[in-house]
Amino acid sequence: MRSARRRRAPARSLAVLLALVASCGAAPTAPTAPAPRADPAWGVVDSTCAPERLAARVPGVDVAVVEAHWDRLEPQPGVTDPGYAEGLRATVTRCVDAGVRVVLGSGLQYPPGWVRALPGAEIRDQAGRTPTTGAVDTVFSAAVAAAADDHLRRLVAAVPLDGLVGIRVGTSTAGELGHPGPEASGAAFDSWWAFGDAPQHGVGLAPGQVSSPMPDWVPGQRTWQGRAVTPDDARGWFTWYSGALVRAVADRARSLREAGYRGPVHVPAAGRGVLPADLDAAVGVVLDTAVRDGALRRGLDYVGDLPALAAAVPGAVVDVTGLDDATAVRARRLDPPQDRCAPGDAEALVAGAPSLDDWPNQRVTVAAAARAGLPTVGENPGPPGPTTGGVADSDSEADQVRYGVEYARVCGLSAFLLAFEDDLYTGRSGITPDDYLTAIRR
Protein backbone atom coordinates (compact mmCIF):
# COMPACT_ATOMS: atom_id res chain seq x y z
CA MET A 1 0.00 0.00 0.00
CA ARG A 2 1.20 3.51 -0.75
CA SER A 3 2.39 5.61 2.15
CA ALA A 4 -0.11 7.99 3.72
CA ARG A 5 -0.63 11.26 1.89
CA ARG A 6 -2.46 14.46 2.66
CA ARG A 7 -6.09 14.37 1.61
CA ARG A 8 -7.02 17.19 -0.76
CA ALA A 9 -10.33 18.99 -0.93
CA PRO A 10 -12.93 17.25 -3.13
CA ALA A 11 -13.87 20.56 -4.80
CA ARG A 12 -10.32 20.89 -6.09
CA SER A 13 -10.46 17.33 -7.46
CA LEU A 14 -13.61 18.11 -9.42
CA ALA A 15 -12.07 21.33 -10.71
CA VAL A 16 -9.11 19.33 -11.97
CA LEU A 17 -11.48 16.86 -13.67
CA LEU A 18 -13.38 19.61 -15.44
CA ALA A 19 -10.20 21.44 -16.46
CA LEU A 20 -8.88 18.23 -17.98
CA VAL A 21 -12.08 17.73 -19.92
CA ALA A 22 -11.97 21.29 -21.24
CA SER A 23 -8.59 20.58 -22.80
CA CYS A 24 -9.73 17.49 -24.66
CA GLY A 25 -10.16 19.27 -27.97
CA ALA A 26 -6.40 19.83 -28.22
CA ALA A 27 -4.30 17.68 -30.50
CA PRO A 28 -3.44 14.34 -28.87
CA THR A 29 0.06 13.98 -27.49
CA ALA A 30 2.11 11.10 -26.13
CA PRO A 31 3.34 12.22 -22.69
CA THR A 32 6.51 10.64 -21.36
CA ALA A 33 5.17 10.69 -17.79
CA PRO A 34 1.84 11.47 -16.12
CA ALA A 35 1.54 15.14 -15.18
CA PRO A 36 1.26 15.83 -11.43
CA ARG A 37 -2.37 15.91 -10.34
CA ALA A 38 -4.48 16.40 -7.27
CA ASP A 39 -6.18 13.40 -5.77
CA PRO A 40 -9.01 11.98 -7.89
CA ALA A 41 -12.59 12.93 -7.19
CA TRP A 42 -14.34 10.14 -5.26
CA GLY A 43 -17.77 8.80 -6.08
CA VAL A 44 -20.22 5.90 -6.21
CA VAL A 45 -21.95 3.99 -9.01
CA ASP A 46 -25.71 3.34 -9.26
CA SER A 47 -26.65 6.02 -6.78
CA THR A 48 -30.23 6.55 -5.66
CA CYS A 49 -29.46 9.97 -4.15
CA ALA A 50 -31.72 8.84 -1.31
CA PRO A 51 -31.91 11.44 1.49
CA GLU A 52 -30.75 9.02 4.17
CA ARG A 53 -27.73 8.01 2.11
CA LEU A 54 -26.83 11.58 1.28
CA ALA A 55 -26.99 12.39 4.98
CA ALA A 56 -24.65 9.49 5.77
CA ARG A 57 -22.35 9.85 2.76
CA VAL A 58 -18.63 9.41 3.13
CA PRO A 59 -16.83 12.75 3.60
CA GLY A 60 -15.10 13.67 0.36
CA VAL A 61 -17.28 11.38 -1.79
CA ASP A 62 -18.93 14.00 -3.97
CA VAL A 63 -19.72 12.30 -7.31
CA ALA A 64 -22.65 9.98 -7.98
CA VAL A 65 -23.43 7.94 -11.07
CA VAL A 66 -27.21 7.98 -11.60
CA GLU A 67 -28.49 5.52 -14.19
CA ALA A 68 -31.35 6.44 -16.52
CA HIS A 69 -33.46 3.86 -18.38
CA TRP A 70 -34.58 4.48 -21.95
CA ASP A 71 -37.40 1.92 -21.69
CA ARG A 72 -38.84 3.74 -18.68
CA LEU A 73 -38.46 7.26 -20.00
CA GLU A 74 -40.04 6.46 -23.38
CA PRO A 75 -42.12 3.28 -23.03
CA GLN A 76 -44.06 4.12 -26.21
CA PRO A 77 -42.63 5.75 -29.33
CA GLY A 78 -42.63 9.51 -28.97
CA VAL A 79 -44.21 9.42 -25.51
CA THR A 80 -42.28 10.53 -22.43
CA ASP A 81 -43.47 8.97 -19.17
CA PRO A 82 -44.00 12.09 -17.03
CA GLY A 83 -43.79 10.18 -13.77
CA TYR A 84 -40.45 8.61 -14.61
CA ALA A 85 -39.07 11.89 -15.96
CA GLU A 86 -40.06 13.72 -12.78
CA GLY A 87 -38.58 10.96 -10.62
CA LEU A 88 -35.30 11.13 -12.51
CA ARG A 89 -35.21 14.92 -12.19
CA ALA A 90 -35.89 14.64 -8.46
CA THR A 91 -33.10 12.08 -8.03
CA VAL A 92 -30.52 14.27 -9.76
CA THR A 93 -31.76 17.37 -7.93
CA ARG A 94 -31.40 15.72 -4.51
CA CYS A 95 -27.76 14.92 -5.22
CA VAL A 96 -26.99 18.35 -6.64
CA ASP A 97 -28.70 20.15 -3.75
CA ALA A 98 -26.55 18.10 -1.35
CA GLY A 99 -23.35 19.21 -3.11
CA VAL A 100 -22.90 15.96 -5.03
CA ARG A 101 -22.07 16.20 -8.74
CA VAL A 102 -23.79 13.69 -11.03
CA VAL A 103 -22.58 11.52 -13.89
CA LEU A 104 -25.73 10.46 -15.70
CA GLY A 105 -25.95 7.06 -17.35
CA SER A 106 -27.74 7.61 -20.67
CA GLY A 107 -29.65 4.32 -20.46
CA LEU A 108 -29.09 3.52 -24.13
CA GLN A 109 -28.40 -0.08 -23.10
CA TYR A 110 -32.07 -0.40 -22.07
CA PRO A 111 -33.99 0.08 -25.33
CA PRO A 112 -37.79 -0.14 -25.15
CA GLY A 113 -39.46 -3.10 -26.78
CA TRP A 114 -40.78 -0.99 -29.64
CA VAL A 115 -37.22 -0.15 -30.72
CA ARG A 116 -36.62 -3.82 -31.53
CA ALA A 117 -39.28 -3.60 -34.24
CA LEU A 118 -37.62 -0.68 -36.04
CA PRO A 119 -36.08 -1.22 -39.49
CA GLY A 120 -32.62 -2.72 -39.23
CA ALA A 121 -32.83 -3.05 -35.45
CA GLU A 122 -31.74 -6.68 -35.51
CA ILE A 123 -28.01 -7.28 -35.38
CA ARG A 124 -26.76 -10.20 -37.44
CA ASP A 125 -23.46 -12.02 -37.43
CA GLN A 126 -21.80 -13.72 -40.38
CA ALA A 127 -23.90 -16.87 -39.82
CA GLY A 128 -27.17 -14.93 -39.73
CA ARG A 129 -27.53 -15.28 -35.96
CA THR A 130 -29.10 -12.58 -33.81
CA PRO A 131 -27.97 -11.86 -30.24
CA THR A 132 -29.54 -13.79 -27.40
CA THR A 133 -28.93 -10.79 -25.13
CA GLY A 134 -31.61 -8.59 -26.65
CA ALA A 135 -29.08 -6.21 -28.21
CA VAL A 136 -30.28 -3.89 -30.96
CA ASP A 137 -28.14 -2.28 -33.64
CA THR A 138 -27.24 1.07 -32.09
CA VAL A 139 -24.22 1.29 -34.39
CA PHE A 140 -25.39 0.85 -37.99
CA SER A 141 -29.21 1.15 -38.08
CA ALA A 142 -30.45 4.62 -39.07
CA ALA A 143 -33.85 4.00 -37.47
CA VAL A 144 -32.34 2.91 -34.14
CA ALA A 145 -29.85 5.78 -34.22
CA ALA A 146 -32.68 8.28 -34.76
CA ALA A 147 -34.64 6.78 -31.87
CA ALA A 148 -31.55 6.86 -29.64
CA ASP A 149 -30.91 10.51 -30.50
CA ASP A 150 -34.52 11.37 -29.70
CA HIS A 151 -34.16 9.56 -26.36
CA LEU A 152 -31.08 11.63 -25.52
CA ARG A 153 -32.96 14.85 -26.26
CA ARG A 154 -35.74 13.74 -23.92
CA LEU A 155 -33.17 12.82 -21.29
CA VAL A 156 -31.44 16.20 -21.46
CA ALA A 157 -34.83 17.92 -21.17
CA ALA A 158 -35.71 15.86 -18.10
CA VAL A 159 -32.78 16.67 -15.81
CA PRO A 160 -31.04 19.80 -14.49
CA LEU A 161 -27.91 20.11 -16.61
CA ASP A 162 -25.96 22.41 -14.31
CA GLY A 163 -25.37 19.59 -11.82
CA LEU A 164 -23.95 17.13 -14.35
CA VAL A 165 -20.23 16.44 -14.71
CA GLY A 166 -20.73 13.68 -17.28
CA ILE A 167 -23.17 11.69 -19.40
CA ARG A 168 -22.23 8.11 -20.23
CA VAL A 169 -22.55 6.88 -23.81
CA GLY A 170 -21.83 3.32 -24.95
CA THR A 171 -22.91 0.95 -27.71
CA SER A 172 -23.30 -2.44 -25.98
CA THR A 173 -25.91 -4.05 -23.73
CA ALA A 174 -23.55 -3.35 -20.82
CA GLY A 175 -23.51 0.36 -21.69
CA GLU A 176 -19.86 0.11 -22.76
CA LEU A 177 -18.01 0.64 -26.00
CA GLY A 178 -18.08 -2.43 -28.22
CA HIS A 179 -20.01 -4.72 -30.51
CA PRO A 180 -21.77 -7.64 -28.76
CA GLY A 181 -19.44 -10.14 -27.12
CA PRO A 182 -19.14 -13.91 -27.47
CA GLU A 183 -21.93 -14.50 -24.96
CA ALA A 184 -24.42 -12.92 -27.38
CA SER A 185 -24.58 -15.92 -29.72
CA GLY A 186 -23.46 -18.79 -27.53
CA ALA A 187 -20.61 -19.38 -29.97
CA ALA A 188 -17.55 -18.20 -28.08
CA PHE A 189 -15.26 -15.81 -29.95
CA ASP A 190 -17.01 -16.63 -33.20
CA SER A 191 -19.40 -13.81 -34.14
CA TRP A 192 -18.65 -10.65 -36.06
CA TRP A 193 -21.68 -8.38 -35.62
CA ALA A 194 -21.81 -6.39 -38.84
CA PHE A 195 -23.72 -8.50 -41.35
CA GLY A 196 -27.08 -6.81 -41.67
CA ASP A 197 -28.15 -4.91 -44.77
CA ALA A 198 -27.05 -1.58 -43.31
CA PRO A 199 -23.39 -2.35 -42.56
CA GLN A 200 -22.89 -4.59 -45.57
CA HIS A 201 -24.83 -2.77 -48.29
CA GLY A 202 -25.73 0.64 -46.89
CA VAL A 203 -29.47 -0.03 -46.74
CA GLY A 204 -30.85 2.02 -43.85
CA LEU A 205 -27.34 3.00 -42.74
CA ALA A 206 -27.02 5.44 -39.85
CA PRO A 207 -25.73 8.94 -40.63
CA GLY A 208 -22.00 9.20 -40.15
CA GLN A 209 -21.45 5.50 -40.82
CA VAL A 210 -20.00 3.89 -43.93
CA SER A 211 -20.76 0.44 -45.27
CA SER A 212 -18.27 -2.42 -45.43
CA PRO A 213 -15.19 -1.84 -47.59
CA MET A 214 -15.55 -5.48 -48.72
CA PRO A 215 -19.29 -6.27 -48.88
CA ASP A 216 -20.14 -9.86 -47.89
CA TRP A 217 -16.56 -10.74 -47.03
CA VAL A 218 -16.34 -12.75 -43.81
CA PRO A 219 -13.17 -12.51 -41.71
CA GLY A 220 -11.04 -15.58 -42.27
CA GLN A 221 -12.02 -16.03 -45.91
CA ARG A 222 -8.93 -16.09 -48.12
CA THR A 223 -10.58 -14.71 -51.24
CA TRP A 224 -13.09 -11.95 -52.04
CA GLN A 225 -14.67 -11.31 -55.42
CA GLY A 226 -12.22 -13.67 -57.08
CA ARG A 227 -9.00 -12.28 -55.67
CA ALA A 228 -6.79 -13.07 -52.71
CA VAL A 229 -7.42 -11.18 -49.49
CA THR A 230 -4.28 -9.50 -48.20
CA PRO A 231 -3.36 -8.52 -44.63
CA ASP A 232 -3.87 -4.89 -45.67
CA ASP A 233 -7.41 -5.78 -46.77
CA ALA A 234 -8.07 -7.45 -43.41
CA ARG A 235 -6.67 -4.48 -41.50
CA GLY A 236 -8.83 -2.09 -43.49
CA TRP A 237 -11.93 -4.17 -42.73
CA PHE A 238 -11.15 -4.30 -39.03
CA THR A 239 -10.44 -0.57 -38.94
CA TRP A 240 -13.90 -0.04 -40.44
CA TYR A 241 -15.54 -2.47 -37.97
CA SER A 242 -13.81 -0.97 -34.95
CA GLY A 243 -14.12 2.62 -36.10
CA ALA A 244 -17.88 2.24 -36.47
CA LEU A 245 -18.09 2.23 -32.67
CA VAL A 246 -16.38 5.61 -32.42
CA ARG A 247 -18.60 6.99 -35.18
CA ALA A 248 -21.70 5.84 -33.27
CA VAL A 249 -20.53 7.46 -30.03
CA ALA A 250 -19.69 10.65 -31.91
CA ASP A 251 -23.22 10.73 -33.35
CA ARG A 252 -24.77 10.33 -29.89
CA ALA A 253 -22.47 13.06 -28.53
CA ARG A 254 -23.57 15.37 -31.33
CA SER A 255 -27.20 14.84 -30.30
CA LEU A 256 -26.36 15.67 -26.70
CA ARG A 257 -24.68 18.91 -27.79
CA GLU A 258 -27.60 19.85 -30.02
CA ALA A 259 -29.93 19.30 -27.06
CA GLY A 260 -27.95 21.77 -24.98
CA TYR A 261 -25.61 19.57 -22.97
CA ARG A 262 -22.05 20.96 -22.94
CA GLY A 263 -20.30 18.78 -20.35
CA PRO A 264 -18.04 15.72 -20.57
CA VAL A 265 -19.10 12.60 -22.45
CA HIS A 266 -17.95 9.49 -20.58
CA VAL A 267 -17.25 6.43 -22.73
CA PRO A 268 -17.12 3.23 -20.63
CA ALA A 269 -14.31 0.96 -21.81
CA ALA A 270 -14.16 -2.67 -20.72
CA GLY A 271 -11.14 -4.95 -20.90
CA ARG A 272 -7.95 -3.79 -22.57
CA GLY A 273 -8.81 -4.04 -26.24
CA VAL A 274 -6.54 -5.68 -28.79
CA LEU A 275 -2.83 -5.18 -28.23
CA PRO A 276 -0.99 -3.89 -31.32
CA ALA A 277 1.07 -7.08 -31.67
CA ASP A 278 -2.06 -9.21 -31.40
CA LEU A 279 -3.81 -7.16 -34.06
CA ASP A 280 -0.79 -7.48 -36.35
CA ALA A 281 -0.89 -11.25 -35.92
CA ALA A 282 -4.64 -11.34 -36.53
CA VAL A 283 -4.55 -9.38 -39.78
CA GLY A 284 -1.61 -11.53 -40.89
CA VAL A 285 -4.04 -14.48 -41.03
CA VAL A 286 -6.87 -12.27 -42.38
CA LEU A 287 -8.65 -12.24 -38.99
CA ASP A 288 -8.93 -16.02 -38.88
CA THR A 289 -8.20 -16.06 -35.14
CA ALA A 290 -9.46 -14.90 -31.76
CA VAL A 291 -7.99 -12.69 -29.05
CA ARG A 292 -8.51 -13.13 -25.33
CA ASP A 293 -11.66 -11.58 -23.84
CA GLY A 294 -13.25 -11.46 -27.29
CA ALA A 295 -11.69 -8.03 -27.88
CA LEU A 296 -11.21 -8.65 -31.62
CA ARG A 297 -14.85 -9.60 -32.27
CA ARG A 298 -16.05 -6.77 -30.04
CA GLY A 299 -14.05 -4.36 -32.21
CA LEU A 300 -12.10 -2.99 -29.26
CA ASP A 301 -8.90 -1.37 -30.48
CA TYR A 302 -8.17 1.27 -27.86
CA VAL A 303 -4.71 2.06 -29.21
CA GLY A 304 -6.11 2.71 -32.68
CA ASP A 305 -9.48 4.19 -31.85
CA LEU A 306 -9.01 6.42 -28.80
CA PRO A 307 -7.15 9.08 -30.84
CA ALA A 308 -10.12 9.05 -33.23
CA LEU A 309 -12.48 9.38 -30.26
CA ALA A 310 -10.51 12.38 -28.99
CA ALA A 311 -10.80 14.05 -32.38
CA ALA A 312 -14.48 13.21 -32.92
CA VAL A 313 -15.84 13.91 -29.42
CA PRO A 314 -14.40 17.00 -27.73
CA GLY A 315 -14.89 16.50 -24.00
CA ALA A 316 -14.62 12.70 -24.17
CA VAL A 317 -13.51 10.90 -21.02
CA VAL A 318 -12.51 7.22 -20.95
CA ASP A 319 -14.18 5.30 -18.12
CA VAL A 320 -12.06 2.26 -17.18
CA THR A 321 -14.80 -0.08 -15.96
CA GLY A 322 -12.59 -2.81 -14.48
CA LEU A 323 -10.19 -1.08 -12.11
CA ASP A 324 -8.69 -3.83 -9.93
CA ASP A 325 -10.32 -6.60 -11.95
CA ALA A 326 -9.01 -10.16 -12.04
CA THR A 327 -6.24 -9.22 -14.49
CA ALA A 328 -4.90 -6.74 -11.92
CA VAL A 329 -4.95 -9.42 -9.24
CA ARG A 330 -2.84 -11.69 -11.45
CA ALA A 331 -0.47 -8.88 -12.45
CA ARG A 332 0.04 -7.94 -8.81
CA ARG A 333 1.28 -11.44 -8.04
CA LEU A 334 4.01 -11.42 -10.68
CA ASP A 335 7.67 -10.88 -9.85
CA PRO A 336 8.08 -8.00 -10.38
CA PRO A 337 4.43 -6.91 -10.13
CA GLN A 338 2.94 -5.41 -13.30
CA ASP A 339 -0.30 -3.99 -11.93
CA ARG A 340 0.65 -0.32 -11.55
CA CYS A 341 0.70 2.35 -14.22
CA ALA A 342 4.17 3.79 -14.73
CA PRO A 343 5.87 6.64 -16.61
CA GLY A 344 6.55 5.60 -20.18
CA ASP A 345 3.54 3.27 -20.44
CA ALA A 346 2.11 5.14 -23.45
CA GLU A 347 5.34 4.67 -25.40
CA ALA A 348 5.75 1.04 -24.33
CA LEU A 349 2.23 0.30 -25.53
CA VAL A 350 2.91 1.22 -29.14
CA ALA A 351 6.49 -0.05 -29.07
CA GLY A 352 5.23 -3.54 -28.23
CA ALA A 353 7.23 -4.05 -25.04
CA PRO A 354 7.59 -7.76 -24.17
CA SER A 355 5.89 -7.22 -20.80
CA LEU A 356 2.59 -6.08 -22.32
CA ASP A 357 1.05 -9.54 -22.04
CA ASP A 358 1.50 -9.24 -18.28
CA TRP A 359 -0.15 -5.85 -18.02
CA PRO A 360 -3.66 -5.79 -16.54
CA ASN A 361 -6.58 -4.30 -18.43
CA GLN A 362 -6.46 -1.04 -16.51
CA ARG A 363 -2.82 -0.34 -17.32
CA VAL A 364 -3.28 -0.89 -21.04
CA THR A 365 -6.42 1.24 -21.27
CA VAL A 366 -4.98 4.10 -19.23
CA ALA A 367 -1.85 4.09 -21.41
CA ALA A 368 -3.95 4.12 -24.59
CA ALA A 369 -6.02 7.02 -23.25
CA ALA A 370 -2.89 8.94 -22.24
CA ARG A 371 -1.45 8.45 -25.72
CA ALA A 372 -4.68 9.93 -27.14
CA GLY A 373 -4.64 12.86 -24.72
CA LEU A 374 -7.87 11.72 -23.05
CA PRO A 375 -8.59 11.95 -19.31
CA THR A 376 -9.69 8.81 -17.50
CA VAL A 377 -11.99 7.89 -14.66
CA GLY A 378 -12.37 4.38 -13.30
CA GLU A 379 -14.57 2.02 -11.35
CA ASN A 380 -14.00 -1.37 -9.76
CA PRO A 381 -15.86 -4.37 -11.18
CA GLY A 382 -17.89 -5.06 -8.04
CA PRO A 383 -18.51 -8.38 -6.33
CA PRO A 384 -18.82 -11.57 -8.41
CA GLY A 385 -22.26 -11.89 -9.92
CA PRO A 386 -24.25 -11.99 -13.19
CA THR A 387 -24.81 -8.22 -13.25
CA THR A 388 -21.28 -7.09 -12.36
CA GLY A 389 -17.80 -7.45 -13.80
CA GLY A 390 -16.59 -9.43 -10.81
CA VAL A 391 -15.54 -13.05 -11.34
CA ALA A 392 -14.42 -15.87 -9.07
CA ASP A 393 -10.77 -14.77 -8.96
CA SER A 394 -11.49 -11.07 -8.47
CA ASP A 395 -10.49 -9.35 -5.27
CA SER A 396 -13.09 -9.19 -2.55
CA GLU A 397 -15.17 -6.04 -2.54
CA ALA A 398 -13.20 -4.79 0.47
CA ASP A 399 -9.91 -5.27 -1.39
CA GLN A 400 -11.36 -3.63 -4.50
CA VAL A 401 -12.05 -0.52 -2.42
CA ARG A 402 -8.48 -0.46 -1.14
CA TYR A 403 -6.71 -1.28 -4.38
CA GLY A 404 -9.14 0.67 -6.57
CA VAL A 405 -8.39 3.87 -4.68
CA GLU A 406 -4.66 3.15 -4.88
CA TYR A 407 -4.75 2.44 -8.62
CA ALA A 408 -6.81 5.58 -9.25
CA ARG A 409 -4.01 7.60 -7.69
CA VAL A 410 -1.03 5.88 -9.26
CA CYS A 411 -2.67 5.83 -12.72
CA GLY A 412 -3.56 9.53 -12.53
CA LEU A 413 -7.32 9.04 -12.89
CA SER A 414 -9.56 12.08 -12.58
CA ALA A 415 -12.12 10.18 -10.51
CA PHE A 416 -12.69 6.83 -8.82
CA LEU A 417 -16.29 5.61 -8.75
CA LEU A 418 -17.01 2.82 -6.31
CA ALA A 419 -19.26 0.06 -7.63
CA PHE A 420 -21.82 0.00 -6.09
CA GLU A 421 -23.64 2.39 -3.74
CA ASP A 422 -25.78 -0.46 -2.40
CA ASP A 423 -22.65 -2.28 -1.33
CA LEU A 424 -21.77 0.60 0.96
CA TYR A 425 -25.13 0.95 2.66
CA THR A 426 -26.69 -2.50 2.73
CA GLY A 427 -23.74 -4.60 3.89
CA ARG A 428 -24.38 -7.10 1.10
CA SER A 429 -20.67 -7.26 0.25
CA GLY A 430 -19.25 -6.77 3.71
CA ILE A 431 -18.01 -3.21 3.20
CA THR A 432 -19.02 -0.05 5.03
CA PRO A 433 -18.67 3.68 4.46
CA ASP A 434 -15.76 3.61 6.91
CA ASP A 435 -13.85 1.25 4.59
CA TYR A 436 -14.14 3.76 1.75
CA LEU A 437 -13.18 6.65 4.02
CA THR A 438 -10.14 4.79 5.32
CA ALA A 439 -9.00 4.02 1.77
CA ILE A 440 -9.22 7.60 0.50
CA ARG A 441 -7.51 9.01 3.62
CA ARG A 442 -4.44 6.78 3.31
Automatic annotation (TrEMBL):
This protein's record includes keyword Signal:
yes
Tell me if Signal is a UniProt keyword of this record.
Answer: yes
Task: Quote the InterPro entries the UniProt record gives.
Answer: GH
Q: What start and end residues bound the annotated signal peptide? A: 1-26
Top-level taxon in the UniProt lineage: Bacteria
Transmembrane portions of the chain: none
Q: Which UniProt keywords apply?
A: Signal
Q: Where is this region: Disordered?
A: 374-396
The record's PROSITE patterns line, in alphabetical order, gives: PROKAR_LIPOPROTEIN
Instruction: Please report the name of this protein according to its UniProt entry.
Output: Glycoside hydrolase family 42 N-terminal domain-containing protein
Q: Lineage of the source organism? A: Bacteria, Bacillati, Actinomycetota, Actinomycetes, Pseudonocardiales
